[in-house]
């Protein structure tokens, strides 16, 4: 199956089996509340990896899902840091990232920046430095396959996919420490995207806004 178990796939599997969440909880050896939270999510489910595996394994045993991949079987996530100035050499290629770059030169206030960009979008996210000094998730677009709405306000490193958490954390800290935009190309399997992260401030705290677009920057002539 895919690298993730999604809420949509989980609900569809239950419908095919005509199972209740109570029956799934028993089959997976989990509490009903845990299963309920997983079923209520859209996109990639955010829960303990062990809980996701138990649910997926129980459904796979009934033929409703493919066997879940073990963590070591996931395709590696490759992250390549690029000079942020490349964004200016690709006019018309990554229009969202170009807009983010341009507006970040005008303001470093998170709310003002998002307003200038027309509001939060499906592939936009933000983090801020929390009281504990770690990064916490702020904005979270629905088009980001690695997260779900229940992660808003949570520590970034609590993401179920640790490869994604580490890659994002490194990009965000680079922007915060250098106080400048950074551009990166990320790839896992056949999924590839380019992401621009810019430093901002929110409620007096350091923060970062990121916007990603599918595809790879290519300046080959």
TrEMBL record:
Molecular function terms from GO: DNA binding
Descriptive protein name: Uncharacterized protein
Organism: Thalassobaculum litoreum DSM 18839
């Amino acid at each position: 199956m895919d690298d993730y178990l999604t809420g949509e796939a989980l609900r569809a599997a239950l419908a095919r089996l005509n199972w209740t969440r109570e029956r799934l909880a028993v089959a997976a050896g989990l509490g009903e509340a845990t299963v309920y939270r997983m079923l209520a999510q859209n996109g990639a489910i955010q829960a303990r990896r062990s809980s996701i595996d138990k649910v997926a394994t129980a459904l796979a045993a009934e033929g409703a899902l493919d066997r879940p991949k073990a963590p070591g079987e996931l395709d590696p996530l490759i992250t390549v840091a690029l000079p942020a100035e490349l964004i200016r050499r690709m006019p018309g290629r990554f229009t969202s990232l170009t807009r983010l770059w341009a507006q970040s030169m005008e303001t470093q206030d998170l709310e003002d920046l998002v307003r200038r960009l027309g509001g939060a979008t499906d592939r936009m996210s933000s983090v801020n430095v929390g009281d504990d000094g770690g990064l916490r998730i702020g904005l979270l677009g629905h088009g980001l396959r690695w997260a779900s709405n229940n992660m808003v306000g949570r520590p970034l490193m609590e993401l179920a996919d640790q490869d994604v958490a580490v890659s994002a954390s490194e990009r965000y800290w680079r922007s915060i420490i250098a106080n400048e935009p950074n551009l990166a190309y990320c790839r896992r399997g056949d999924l590839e995207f380019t992401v621009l992260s810019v430093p901002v401030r929110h409620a007096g705290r350091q923060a970062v806004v990121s916007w990603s677009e599918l595809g790879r920057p290519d300046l080959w002539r």
